[in-house]
Write a structure and sequence with these properties.
Layout lengths: L16 E3 L2 E3 L6 E5 L6 E6 L3 H18 L4 H17 L1 H12 L3 H22 L5 E3 L6 E10 L3 E4 L7 H13 L3 E4 L5 H13 L7 E3 L4 H10 L5 E5 L2 H13 L3 E5 L4 E5 L5 H12 L10 E7 L3 H13 L19 H16 L3 E4 L3 E2 L5 E2 L2 E4 L16 E7 L2 H8 L4 E2 L1 E5 L3 H10 L4 E4 L14 E2 L2 E2 L4 H6 L2 E9 L4
Parallel strand pairs: 7-8, 7-10, 8-9, 10-11, 12-13, 12-20, 13-18, 17-18, 20-21
Antiparallel strand pairs: 1-2, 3-4, 5-6, 6-24, 11-23, 14-17, 15-16, 19-22
Helix pairs in contact: 2-4, 2-5, 2-6, 3-4, 3-6, 4-5, 7-8, 9-10
Length: 490
C-alpha cells in the first residue's frame, strides 16, 4: 500500500501570474485548484488569465523584446547566470514544490531542478558564440556576410506537466539566451515549479516584460497568444494531437514552430547482450517518473535466446519498486499526475489481457487515495493490442520476443512515433545497425542517458518538429540574415 502523506514541513507557494515584472494573485479568468496527486489535497488556487491579462502579457513581451534584443549576449548571460545561481541555492525548496504538485520522488525532482539550471547556463554561454561568417564573393568589390544570428522575436511557450522544471528550462534558456522575450504557459496541474523559475529571473534583475507567465484555459490561451502578431515563435511540449493543432495555428501566421511531442520508445536487446544487466537498467528507466516520460522505454523487444532471463530480472525489479508520496524517504515511484491517467492505464491493460497478453505483475490501482498505479509488466501481446500502438505514458512495460535483428528493427520502426529508441548489444556491427536503421531523433546504445544540456532533444515523424537544448535548440530561436555590400563606385 503506498504512503500518500508528505512530511509536515512541506511548503507550496502562493500562486500568481507574472506579467511585466509584476505578480498577479488574481485574474479575470477565475481560478483553478492545484492538487497533490499523492493524496488529492488542494495545494493552492491558481489564477487564470482571461483576454485582458493575455493582451497585457503580449504588450509587455513586445516592449521587453525591444529592450532585450539590443542587450549584448554577454550582458544577457550575466543576468541569466544570476538567475541560475539562485535556482541552485533554492533547488531543495523548488524540488519540494515540484514533488508536491507533480508527484515524482524528491531526489528525482532535485536532479531535475539542477539539470534545468545547467540547461539554461549552457544555452546562455553558447549564445555568446553565435558567430556570423563571410562568404567569398563571385564579383570583385562585393562583400557577402551572413550576419550573426538575430533573435526571432517574442515567443509563446507551452509546457507539459511531467517535467515542470526541465521543460520550462529548455524554452526559457533558449529564448532568453538568444535575445527573445517570452510568454510562458506551464501546465495548470504544475504551475508552482515554473513560478519559482520565473521568481529566480525576477530576483536576478531580468527587465520587466522580457519574461511573462500566464495560466488559463489551455485552448483559449494558446489560440489568443498564437494569433497575435506580436508572437513570432511558438514552442510546445505535449501530445501529438495538441501539437498538430498548435502547428496549424502557428502556420496561419507563418510563425516559427518547435514541437516536442509523444513517443513510444522501443528497446532492442540483441542476442549478444547481457540480458540481466539490460533488464536492471531498463527497470530504472521505465519506471522513472512513473513512466510519464516522452522518452520512456516501453516496447522491449528481447532476443528469444535470453527472453526468459530478461523477463525474470525485469519482473523482479518491477516488484521491488517502492511506491508512495514523493516526499517520503525511500520511495522509488510516485503517483500518476492526474486521475484520468488511472483510467487510461486500466483500459490499456484490460485490452492487452483480453487479447491474450500475459500479465506478469501489476495491472491495477494501488490504494484508494492518491493516483497510484502499480508498476506493470505484460508479455507476448498480440499485434492488435493497443499497448503496442498507443503510448501509455505510465508505468507499463511490454516484453516481446524476437528472432532476428531485421525483425526487431522493423517492429521498432512500425509506429508513426520517432522520438527516442534504445538498444543493448556487445557487438559493434549491431550497435551501428541500430544507430543507423532505427527511425528516431535520439538513440541510446547500452544506456538510457540520451538527454544532456549540450545535446539536441527532438524527434522524427509524428514525435515532433525541431529540437530543444544543445546548439540546435538555441538556433531555433534565431533568424538568419544575409548582408551583401558592393563597394561604392569611384
Amino acid at each position: 500500500m503506498p504512503s500518500s502523506e508528505p512530511p509536515p514541513m512541506s511548503k507550496y507557494p502562493a500562486l500568481a501570474l507574472y506579467i511585466d515584472g509584476q505578480w498577479l494573485p488574481s485574474a479575470s479568468g477565475g481560478e483553478l485548484p492545484v492538487v497533490d496527486p499523492a493524496n488529492e489535497s488542494v495545494l493552492g488556487m491558481l489564477p487564470l488569465a482571461g483576454p485582458p491579462e493575455l493582451d497585457r502579457a503580449l504588450a509587455a513581451a513586445e516592449r521587453g523584446f525591444a529592450l532585450w534584443k539590443n542587450t549584448c549576449a554577454i550582458d544577457r548571460q550575466k543576468i541569466i547566470a544570476r538567475a541560475t545561481r539562485l535556482l541552485r541555492e533554492r533547488a531543495g525548496a523548488i524540488a519540494t514544490v515540484l514533488t508536491l504538485e507533480q508527484g515524482k520522488p524528491h531526489a528525482q525532482a532535485l536532479r531535475e531542478v539542477v539539470l534545468g539550471a545547467e540547461i539554461i547556463d549552457f544555452l546562455a554561454e553558447e549564445a555568446k558564440r553565435l558567430y556570423g561568417r563571410t562568404v567569398p564573393p563571385r564579383t570583385p568589390g562585393v562583400l557577402a556576410q551572413v550576419v550573426a544570428r538575430q533573435p526571432v522575436g517574442p515567443v509563446a511557450a507551452f509546457t507539459a506537466w511531467n517535467f515542470p522544471a526541465n521543460l520550462p528550462a529548455r524554452k526559457l534558456g533558449g529564448a532568453l539566451a538568444a535575445g527573445c522575450s517570452v510568454v510562458i504557459k506551464p501546465a495548470e496541474e504544475t504551475p508552482g515549479t515554473c513560478l519559482e523559475f520565473v521568481r529566480a529571473f525576477h530576483d536576478a534583475g531580468l527587465p520587466p516584460g522580457v519574461l511573462n507567465m500566464v495560466c488559463g484555459r489551455p485552448a483559449q490561451v494558446s489560440a489568443h497568444l498564437i494569433a497575435s502578431p506580436v508572437i513570432r515563435k511558438v514552442s510546445f511540449t505535449g501530445s501529438v494531437a495538441v501539437g498538430r493543432l498548435l502547428g496549424e495555428l502557428a502556420a496561419r501566421g507563418v510563425k516559427r514552430y518547435t514541437a516536442e511531442l509523444g513517443g513510444h520508445a522501443p528497446v532492442i536487446v540483441c542476442e549478444d547482450a547481457d540480458f540481466v544487466r539490460a533488464a536492471r537498467a531498463s527497470v530504472t528507466a521505465k519506471f522513472r517518473n512513473a513512466g510519464q516520460v516522452c522518452t520512456s522505454p516501453t516496447r522491449f523487444y528481447v532476443h528469444r535466446a535470453g527472453f526468459e532471463a530478461f523477463r525474470e530480472a525485469f519482473v523482479a525489479g518491477a516488484r521491488a519498486i517502492r511506491v508512495g508520496h514523493g516526499l517520503t524517504e525511500g520511495v522509488d515511484m510516485g503517483p500518476l499526475a492526474n486521475e484520468r491517467r488511472l483510467a487510461d492505464m486500466q483500459r490499456l491493460v484490460d485490452d492487452a489481457r483480453e487479447r491474450g497478453g500475459d500479465l506478469l505483475c501489476g495491472g491495477h490501482r494501488l490504494g484508494e487515495r492518491g493516483w497510484f498505479y502499480a508498476p506493470t509488466v505484460l508479455a507476448r501481446l498480440t499485434p492488435e493490442a493497443r499497448l503496442l500502438h498507443e503510448e501509455p505514458f505510465g508505468p507499463i512495460a511490454v516484453l516481446q520476443p524476437f528472432d532476428t535483428l531485421d525483425e526487431a528493427i522493423a517492429l521498432a520502426n512500425a509506429l508513426p512515433y520517432g522520438l527516442a529508441a534504445y538498444g543493448f548489444t556487445s557487438d559493434l556491427t549491431s550497435a551501428h545497425r541500430l544507430g543507423e536503421e532505427i527511425e528516431a531523433g535520439m538513440i541510446g546504445i547500452n544506456h538510457f542517458g540520451i538527454s544532456q544540456p549540450e545535446t539536441p532533444f527532438g524527434g522524427w515523424k509524428e514525435s515532433g518538429f525541431g529540437q530543444e537544448s544543445g546548439l540546435e535548440g538555441l538556433l531555433g530561436y534565431t533568424d538568419v540574415k544575409l548582408c551583401s555590400i558592393a563597394r561604392s563606385p569611384e
